[in-house]
Design brief:
alpha+beta; Nucleotidyltransferase, domain 5; two-stranded antiparallel sheet
């Protein structure tokens, strides 16, 4: 393993295929809200567990890059509902981790952070982070959201009949 597996990393394709062969959609759609894909972090965690067990054992928590930045700023760890919903591990009705999916995928629930609303105040910029980053100590830090949902909101495409095209490394038309 030479890098952290990003969303477009396809090393998990065999895990996805095995999952699809062993599970009917009716058994996982209500618990995950998604169909299996190599992009989902649940499969990335399985891959690390199987291919770099030492790294999996060492890891305290699996978070997204913005969550790591938030941790460095505040000392608090959380993931927003948007990122969690695209993990294949969150129950969409309860907006919390699905014990069913976590067990089915053989993952450690202790490695998953609390799920919070993107607009919640996670914490405040610590004195150390303020010194390191040139920010004002005590500044509130929101949990925040995933790149595309936040970009979509910023685009103003927020009502039926409106559209947005986000083209970059990947392309999404909404």
């Amino acid at each position: 393993r030479d890098t952290a597996p990003l969303w477009n990393d396809k090393r998990t394709i065999d895990l996805v295929r095995r999952f699809e062969e062993a599970n009917e959609p009716d058994s996982y759609l209500p618990e995950s809200g998604n169909t299996p894909t190599p992009a989902w972090p649940g499969f990335k965690l399985q891959w690390v567990r199987d291919n770099d067990p030492a790294a999996y054992a060492r890891s305290a928590v699996a978070i997204m890059p913005k969550d790591y930045i938030n941790y460095r700023l505040t000392g608090e760890i959380a993931m927003d509902t948007g990122d969690a919903s695209c993990s294949f591990l969150m129950n969409p009705e309860r907006l919390d981790w699905s014990p069913v999916m976590i067990e089915r995928m053989g993952l450690d629930a202790a490695k998953l952070p609390p799920i919070r609303n993107p607009l919640d105040i996670l914490g405040h910029v610590s004195k150390q982070a303020a010194r390191d980053a040139g920010l004002r100590s005590g500044t509130p830090v929101l949990v925040g959201g995933a790149d595309y949902p936040v970009a979509l909101l910023g685009s103003g495409a927020c009502r039926p009949g409106m559209g947005s095209d986000s083209t970059g490394t990947g392309a999404i038309i909404t």
